[in-house]
Amino acid sequence: MNTMRQAKLALVNDELKGLKRRNVHDHDGSGCGEGNEVQRQQLRMTSIVANKIRDAFDRLADLTKQRDMLIADLEHKFHSIEEVKGSVRRGEDLKQYVELLRGKSATYKALKKELDDKATDYGVLVRTKRLLEQQAAGDADVSTFEDGSAAVYELIQCTQRQLEQQGCRGCDLDECTIPTINEISVDDSATNSSEGHEKMCKNVWKRIAELDTKLQEQRAKVAPLLKQLKEVRTTLQDIETKNAEREEKFTETSTVSKRLFHQQAV
Questions:
Q1: Strand (E) or helix (H) holding 187
Q2: Which of 8, 4, 18, 5 has its CA nearest to residue 46?
Q3: What's the domain range around 105?
């Protein structure tokens, strides 16, 4: 099409050149002045028309170039739109995709609830650990007391056997005074006398009764703590078992979710 326009433009230019040559020839020849004036007017008109035609063809060429650029841009945009249409889900495919997203949302909520439960269990375990540490420290104090009481009891038993060998087994405890542990050991001069034997027997039996009473009181104080410790240990074992089951369930759910995500991505 552009070639045809250029050919027409060339033809008009040739005609214009021919008219100029004839005008020059007539001007140099014997033609009349009126005829030359008419030819000059025709030549001017032809020149004006030719210039307008040339301007029109130039304008048309620019518009044609712009049109081609717009067509290329539109084709590119249409191609992009077609690609986007191909990636948009429609109909049954869209419904399946929505159902998949709902399933993923439900899985996410379930996993989040599991994590919240685990965080709560973790807080319980931390508090239980602190309680157990405190009770373990109390058990250590009780063990120390029991060890010391056992040592004193052994000392008293040894002294009691010595007194039984000396015949002081049947003394009255009501008239005894409360001695200290250091009062159990007496010198040989006091032991050799009957009065010293009787006094030592009373003191020893009084001390035995006192220590036995204290030991019973301490055991009564420790018994509730030991019972509570057993209950806490049982609760801790139950929590650890539930936590292990939840961790196993969480691992299985996470594996299934990852597999589904991978399949969807593929």
A1: none
A2: 18
A3: 92-265
Model pLDDT, residue 184: 45
Nearest-angstrom CA–CA distance, 154 and 137: 26
Task: Say whether both 98 and 216 belong to one domain.
Answer: yes
Alpha helices, DSSP H only, in 166-193? 188-192
Query: Which residues, 6+ apart, have CB-to-CB distance to 186 below 8 Å?
Result: 196, 200
Separation between Cα atoms, residue 177 and residue 163, nearest integer Å:
17
pLDDT for 194: 58
Average pLDDT over residues 237-264: 78
The amino acid present at 159, given as its one-letter code, is T
The model carries a pTM of 0.26
**CB–CB of 47/19 below 8 Å?**
no
Domain boundary among 48, 66, 87: 87
Quick one: 118 and 237 in the same domain? yes
Give backbone dihedrals phi and psi of 172, rounded to 5 degrees, phi first. Answer: -85, 125
CA distances from 119 to 124, 126, 160, 233 (A): 9, 11, 60, 20
156-199 per-position pLDDT tens digit: 566 656 656 654 444 443 344 444 444 444 444 444 455 666 77
Do 65 and 100 lie in one domain? The reply is no
